[in-house]
Design brief:
The structure is a single chain. The chain is mostly helical. Helix content is 76%, strand content 0%. The structure holds N-[(4-amino-2-methylpyrimidin-5-yl)methyl]formamide. N-[(4-amino-2-methylpyrimidin-5-yl)methyl]formamide binds next to helix 4, helix 7 and helix 10. It catalyses: N-formyl-4-amino-5-aminomethyl-2-methylpyrimidine + H2O = 4-amino-5-aminomethyl-2-methylpyrimidine + formate; 4-amino-5-aminomethyl-2-methylpyrimidine + H2O = 4-amino-5-hydroxymethyl-2-methylpyrimidine + NH4(+).
């Protein structure tokens, strides 16, 4: 049997699933920020819901860190994931400040169904039996969707409202892009060593993240349904 070449798996998956990937990274919600037509009530809805999501994302990232420390032979994996985890502390403070600025009461946000589904998915990935290769793929995908999305709002010809620039820079800037590329290298290395079964699980997980991200943007744009 001819062995399947597995290097650069992420690039290949992105190409293979380009329609879904673009659906998540150039969603109408993001395009409405980019062209300045966004309805601020949508932004406020996103803000309140994303704060809830990020609070759940902290233990998820911690669980990936734990698996990196046990499973990876490369200690730099742990350092990259730790830096991501550490930056979430600042991110939570930013959400609180931003919410105060926009009069979004974070204490009584009603968790929307799409957000609940996403948080439940994160919980399922925290189970100890889930392989490091699968969960680090999810981490990469979750971070990269935000990176690519918000970077569109910083492009030269974008008309992003000044009030939203800080949010866009948080994820769209070069620094966060560098972090996502480091994650991508980790994932590619991991997948080179993964079994065929793990590869399939990781690809399915990648696709599920894209779907959940699209649903999250839909919810932000369309409101409670
Ligand atoms: C729904 C969603 N996906 C990805 C991110 C980015 N990661 C951490 O902030 C996020 N904040 N929210």
């Amino acid at each position: 049997m001819v062995p399947v070449k597995k290097s650069g798996m992420i690039d290949r998956w992105v190409k293979k699933h380009l329609v879904l990937y673009t659906g998540a990274t150039s969603h109408p919600f993001i395009l409405s920020i980019r062209d300045g037509t966004i309805d601020f009530s949508s932004f406020k809805r996103w803000l309140g819901q994303d704060y809830i999501f990020v609070r759940e994302f902290v233990p998820f990232t911690a669980s990936v860190l734990l698996k990196a420390s046990k499973n990876s032979d490369d200690s730099s994996d742990m350092e990259v994931i730790l830096s991501g985890l550490a930056s979430l502390s600042d991110e939570i403070s930013w959400f609180k400040q931003e919410a105060a600025k926009w009069d979004v009461p974070l204490s009584d946000v009603i968790v929307h169904k799409s957000n609940q589904n996403y948080c439940r998915f994160l919980e399922s990935l925290m189970l100890p039996e889930l392989e490091y290769s699968v969960v680090v793929t999810a981490l990469w995908a979750i971070e990269t969707v935000y990176q690519e999305s918000f970077s569109h709002c910083l492009e030269d010809d974008s008309k992003t409202p000044p009030e939203l620039l800080e949010a866009c820079k948080r994820w769209g800037s070069e620094g966060f892009g560098e972090f996502c590329r480091s994650l991508q290298n980790i994932v590619n290395q991991c997948l080179e060593k993964a079994s065929e079964e793990e590869l399939i699980k990781a690809e399915v997980t990648f696709l599920r993240v894209l779907e959940l991200e699209i649903e999250f943007w839909n919810m932000s744009q369309e409101g409670a349904k």
